[in-house]
Amino acid sequence: MTASAQRIAHLALLPASSASRRFLARMTLLLAFSFAGLQMGLAGWRTLTNAPPASEASASAPTGNGWYRLAYADPPPPFRIYAEPVAVWWSPAQAILAAVGSFVATVLVVWILVAIQRGGARRRLGPQHLGEGRFDAAIAYGTAWLVLLLPAAGITALVHVADISAVADSPVIIPSGVFFVPGLALAVVGLCGYGFGLIRISATAPVGVRTRVIVFFAWWSPLIGAVVVAGAVAGLYLGLDALALHLDLAW
């Protein structure tokens, strides 16, 4: 993370090794477990409020199986100016399905993105540098910045504690921002540091191909990464919704 330009330049020359592959595998597993934990805290939760129902289709109780009411206000406060949470429900089955799906999706996404980055770098370096293995180890070690996503996911996964504290009439009502803001800040720092680290690595490319290598890592790599991650998230949630309906676990 704090390596000097000389160390970055040296690292960029190293081909993939058993050490770099082991480091990448460990980071991938850590990310997969952290995002699985994040899904345990986000998926399968339902917070009901005292706001008037928007339509007759709004359900105040689950129609599927496996839902548990963790906290509720008795009696619920009347609706005044803004809606207040009155009940928090949780489906452990949905949370487990989401965690497993997120674990598999994270492993696949990391594998795809690393393959795209290595392939894109080789293509921009051109045939004159083919076989050198340049950037291969650096791309693996560059994932060190993503370690900040672990505490970000852990903090954000606790967001429903805020709703439970409000519903249970706790002496201390925790605002949801206590979990979202630090989690988001850590995630932004980790992702920006990761992207900037790749740009630093690309700046060590030979002069003749340096510009196109930097353009790839500064523009195409984050753009392709965003598309891959968005597709994985959309596919995960669409698949989980369909699976919950099929297993009679939906709300």
Question: Could you characterize the architecture of this molecule?
Answer:
With 251 residues, the chain is mainly α. The chain is 61% helix and 6% strand. Strands 1-3-2 form a 3-stranded antiparallel beta sheet, covered by helices on one side. The two termini are 44 Å apart.
Number of distinct helices: 8
Overall geometric form: elongated
What string gives the helices and strands in order? Answer: HHEEEHHHHHH
| Quaternary structure of the protein | single chain
- How would a crystallographer describe the biggest sheet? 3 strands, antiparallel
Radius of gyration: 23 Å
Report low-confidence residues grouped into runs of 5 or more.
Answer: none
Structural class: mainly alpha
The proportion of strand residues reads 5-15%
In short:
The chain is mainly alpha-helical. It is built from eight helices and three strands; from the N terminus they run H-H-E-E-E-H-H-H-H-H-H.
Topology overview:
Blueprint: H1 5-12, H2 18-42, E1 45-49, E2 68-72, E3 85-90, H3 92-125, H4 136-141, H5 149-156, H6 160-167, H7 177-202, H8 210-246
Antiparallel strand pairs: 1-3, 2-3
Relevant terms:
251 residues; three-stranded antiparallel β-sheet; single chain; 61% helix; elongated; mainly alpha
